[in-house]
# Entry
Amino acid sequence: MTENARAALVTGGTGRVGSVIAARLEAEGFAVLAAGSDDGDVSRPEEARTLVERAAAELGGLDIVVNAASAGFEPRRIEEVTESDWDAALDSTAKGSFFVTQAAVPHLRASSLGLVVMIEDVAAYRPWPAFAPHCAAKAAQAMLTRVLARALAPDIRVCGIAPGPVAVEPGQEERRAAETLLERIGSPEDIADAVLFLVSAEFVTGSTIFVDGGLMLNP
# Structure
């Protein structure tokens, strides 16, 4: 890393959204560690700490943490949901976001930027019966955005981004576009744009940006 470069850790950095965020940060001059599941189980405190310390050592510090790791987004009827479904949803999304952020606090406090971005989901705010564990896990993560913003202020800003249909499965584009006011789907690049906005939005903390094409305003 060059002397003046900023450093970012992106969990879920090998996924469809996380990888685009990582690439965009790199294009903007950040040194980035894009971490995937092979880099550790972030729901385990000791593995989260190991990942954070590795990132800080390799990058020369940490200025931003993007919590984009998520799992358990599988449709299930309420009668079919298992404990393993709950564990998959809560572990990386809620526990992982907390323990990675917890481990990163000393490094972020040493930074002049000090930013945590939670990649939430509109599912945190919409009751989707087929995705009960995912909705609950994302709602927990969204609350962490606010809890951690209060706990870590004024040194560290904590913000959320709630994507709508931006990483749509092939064949679902038309149906998902109809859910939005803009009548089209978005892209992971839209989420990366929002992350870059938050980097420079120094008077924003504890808030969530909805990048959803107006989905939240639809019934």
About this structure: The radius of gyration is 17 Å. Strands lie at 7-11, 31-35, 64-67, 115-119, 157-163, 208-211. The mean pLDDT is 95.
